[in-house]
Amino acid sequence: xxxxxxxxxxxxxxxxxxxxxxxxxxxxxxxxxxxxxxxxxxxxxxxxxxxxxxxxxxxxxxxxxxxxxxxxxxxxxxxxxxxxxxxxxxxxxxxxxxxxxxxxxxxxxxxxxxxxxxxxxxxxxxxxxxxxxxxxxxxxxxxxxxxxxxxxxxxxxxxxxxxxxxxxxxxxxxxxxxxxxxxxxxxxxxxxxxxxxxxxxxxxxxxxxxxxxxxxxxxxxxxxxxxxxxxxxxxxxxxxxxxxxxxxxxxxxxxxxxxxxxxxxxxxxxxxxxxxxxxxxxxxxxxxxxxxxxxxxxxxxxxxxxxxxxxxxxxxxxxxxxxxxxxxxxxxxxxxxxxxxxxxxxxxxxxxxxxxxxxxxxxxxxxxxxxxxxxxxx
Length: 378
Prior knowledge:
The structure is a single chain. Strands 1-2-3-8-6-10-5-4 form an eight-stranded mixed beta sheet. A hairpin with a 2-residue loop joins strand 1 and strand 2. The protein has two domains: 23-299, Sandwich (Jelly Rolls), CATH 2.60.120; 311-376, no CATH class. By secondary structure, it is of the alpha+beta class. It is globular, with a radius of gyration of 22 Å. Helices cover 40% and strands 13% of the residues. This is Phytanoyl-CoA dioxygenase.
């Protein structure tokens, strides 16, 4: 193999372009059949999704051996299996669920009155109501109910199965109103919140890493028949490396719409899935169901820097230096951009999405983007 072919091969292996990804390979991966015998702790396999009984799960938590084996099974479902699992009656205390619903509805009403209700990255205005940072707001509004709701060994166990100890939970409540439209199929946080141009700047091993840092989940706060639009999933689609970029292409969107599966959910059920799984909220075709779910986003303890850095303080000192260097031409633009990258926050999250909602895009502008706009008049 000559040097040119080695260079080309490495470039192809490391960088994922917007044209990458073979639909036939994707079709083969997502044509797998989920076999019940592969998942001995499951209650059932329905439409390729592994389903567990919450009462059984709560019993297994009391036996260390069964608990560890079940967690290993969940890890395998999410990584190598269909990528999605449902736990029926994950919330044993439906009174606590109903009280949480009251809290959420109160927050939605209050935020509408104060015009705090912000933008949504995946829904048209008016089709849904969303609470950003619902975890904190829930805790402050009713700490007793928060304790009853999140004092849930099942939620803790599936989070630890995917992420290990020290995970952090965030939550966003989404209420899809009657007539609310369906989402376009997508992957989720982290890479799933970026544009194709941004995603193509991350090497392939980061495309593999991204879904390992987050667990996506949702708790149903009402019965959700299929016509109300519970989430549509394409099992095994998390296996497709190029999916973050490829899934924006029309042929993949069409394939999803022809092959997705949906399961009805009952109040208290929970669904958990690999964030790389191709999925989309369905259309609420009903006239009377306000489909309310508490969307759980659980993050790895490792998704953060080692030190706390006051970047606002740094930029207050740095900004006049950058402006002077730009105006005088003493430093080229690439050096200025490198200095900004070292000092400014280059990622949109974590963010206060009430104050800085992702209107017009999937994520708020980063600190680095804002500084570049000042320096380079972008």
